[in-house]
Amino acid sequence: MDIDKASDFMATHARPLDRRRFELLIGEGDRDALLAALNAYRNPDGGYGHGLEPDLRSRTSQTGPALHAFEVFEELAPVTAPEAVALCDWLESVTLPDGGIPFALPMPDPVGSAPFWTGADAETSSLQITAVVAAMAHRVAAHDEAVAKHPWLDRATRYCLDAVRKRDELHALELSFAIWLADAIEDRETLRLLGRHIPESGLVHVQGGLEDEMMRPLDFAPYPGRPARALFKEDLVRAELRRLDEQQQDDGGWRVDFASYSPAAELEWRGYATVKAVSILTRDPER
Fold first, then answer.
1. pTM check: above 0.85
2. What residues of the chain score a pLDDT lower than 50?
3. Which of 49, 104, 108, 153 gives the lowest tally of CB atoms within 10 Å of its CB?
4. ω before 78 within 30° of 0 (cis)?
5. Neighbour count for residue 226 (Cβ, 10 Å)
6. Is the Cβ–Cβ distance between 210 and 259 less than 8 Å?
7. Distances from the Cα of 62 to the Cα of 238, 243, 269, angstroms
């Protein structure tokens, strides 16, 4: 990994939010600047929209962008932000009776957004979205007591654990995000249950995605030293880290392996993917 080339890529191509995230990651950032960049996507109701999720361009507060907001709140640690617990309040306001949140809410401005967002059923809970948002919220809760004690987080977690135990089959993304959640709360029993869905190769095809789109070991277990890493052999993880390292492009950035739904989203995903890749490669002792 060439960190200087990655820095040049971010300065040239990435949106301000991911530039601030990258700067903090490499020790040159400012937490106030990062929070200010995130708040550009915030709505008065406490939720987030405005393209924070690159393939969801709606200005309205949506459940998907909550993941990306919690990512930033985790990166702010040990500093806490009142916006994090306000986001929990907003999520509580859109939670369905079973404790889950819908994949997306109705949006009056669907232009530029992926059809799986614009066509989502707002009256049905989504294990995929609930699990990934709750998983990242738990990572924020590790340093933010207000988030840890928020009733929404407990309800969402119980919904996900119950849903996993009732399902014989899981979409690759549901599987990945349920593993994230079980890892965040260190629920080893659920991790063992979910691990049965992963073949020895560690590769799970994403149904409905590109022909070669896969969830890989580092998608399931991106954090070293965490319980989810035990689902994969050490040599497989090392091979995946080498693969990720080698995927840095000539321009210094990384690409995603899924389709984007607007030219803006395609470039924004590259900035996001570059932050993710550098984060994994710099913190992992297996590399």
1. yes
2. none
3. 108
4. yes
5. 14
6. yes
7. 36, 33, 18
